[in-house]
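Honest question from a wet-lab person: if I give you the sequences of every part of a complex, can you actually get the arrangement of the whole thing, not just the pieces? Trying it with mine:
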Amino acid sequence: MVSAEAHDPALAAASDAAEIDALVAGGTFGARLGATPEFAALLAASAALTADSVAQDAIAACREKQQDFRVEAAMNLLTEEQAVELDRLMNAMHAVPSVVSYVDALSAFTALCQDTSAVVSGLIGIDFAANSRSGGCCGG
Amino acid sequence: MLTAEIHEAAAELGRSLNQAPAVSAYRTTRAALDADPGALALMEKLRRLQQAFIAAQQSGESAAPDAMEDLRLVQAEVRHNEVIMAHLRASNEVKAFLPLVAAEVSRELGADYAKLIAPTSC
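Yes, you can. This is the full assembly:
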């Protein structure tokens, strides 16, 4: 029989039975999150967004202009015309129904995940959200 | 608002994490630190001296020799304080362990859970 640890680097690296249990509990929790209606709605919205050429064109136009104005935006040096152009493209993108659906679905699932994180943090006495990324909350 | 089922799933994860050595060591050392006014005062003193040092650097000034010496002395005191050092080591351990757990959540979910729950400042 092949152990679960053989398939999973994190489990293989865990040195203690209680650590392995916690990692397994993480996987179980992830599977339960994946079975929520909010996640199903996000997957459906994502698929609809990918299949919508109008949305893809609007997203591409927005990204292209953001890339063009990247330096100016970073340095807070956008001209009024540049800012207006960016706003116009952003508004056009956010007016596409499939984009609206995706943003709403992502927002709902994000809120669900953040609520679960608050439950975990309350039980362990550590900010789970702020410590869940390598290198801290802004780590890669 | 969480459903009872997903709330319980999150609580199960929290209870399991509490059994992990990295988390229990963090809680134990944090409680010891909180119960030690001397250690807390030392940490606060270190924080103030470090902030003053950074502020001086950022303003293009060099720190006064007395301030540098104070900082070195407090750093040495902290290095020899078992309560503080135990907590700092435990903090490092838990900060290495929790991302592994979040990665397991993400792996089963098929989405980056840590990114979804990250504070908005990130």
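Two things worth pointing out. Chain B touches chain A through 50 residues (CB under 8 Å). The radius of gyration of chain B is 20 Å.
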